[in-house]
Design goal:
mainly alpha, two-stranded antiparallel sheet, globular, about 150 residues, about 55% helix
């Protein structure tokens, strides 16, 4: 049985796009629960952020992304699981009702900032960047938990 996917558009600041890619690659080898595949990682990040609840997300005090020209950003469409998209939409509504008005792209940005900062903290500093033009593997091999995390 195939799971339902929902195309979800997001506007990315190019710097955060690169940092998210680097965090995904780092987590692939350094976090036992990180899924293989960027879309799986992004869904994992969004679900974790939704689970924090409106007070937990507000308490993180993630500053809004830097204002850059709209033409400098990247529009990306991500095929999120329907359950992930629904959790995100519910969280956006909860945040709005708690006084935090965010667009879908801003909410995704906030979730990714938290994940990137967590990966950087676990790495002891800045993550090695994914080289420009380097495509991420669709179905990468993942380190076995006993080999890396035991």
């Amino acid at each position: 049985m195939t799971e339902t996917r929902v195309a979800t558009g997001a506007w990315w600041d190019p710097e955060m796009w690169q940092r998210a890619r680097a965090a995904y690659v780092f987590d692939l080898d350094h976090h036992p629960e990180a899924p293989a595949g960027f879309i799986g990682w992004l869904s994992w990040v969004l679900e974790a952020h939704a689970a924090r609840g409106p007070q937990g997300r507000a308490a993180l005090a993630v500053p809004p992304r830097a204002v850059i020209a709209a033409t400098a950003g990247l529009n990306r469409h991500h095929a999120l699981r329907a359950e992930t998209r629904a959790a995100m939409e519910e969280a956006i509504i909860d945040d709005r009702q708690a006084g935090r008005l965010m667009s879908r792209s801003s909410w995704i940005h906030e979730a990714v900032v938290v994940a990137v900062q967590d990966a950087e903290m676990r790495a002891g500093g800045a993550l090695p960047p994914v080289p420009d033009g380097q495509r991420l593997p669709n179905r990468p091999a993942k380190a076995s938990p006993s080999a890396r995390f035991g």
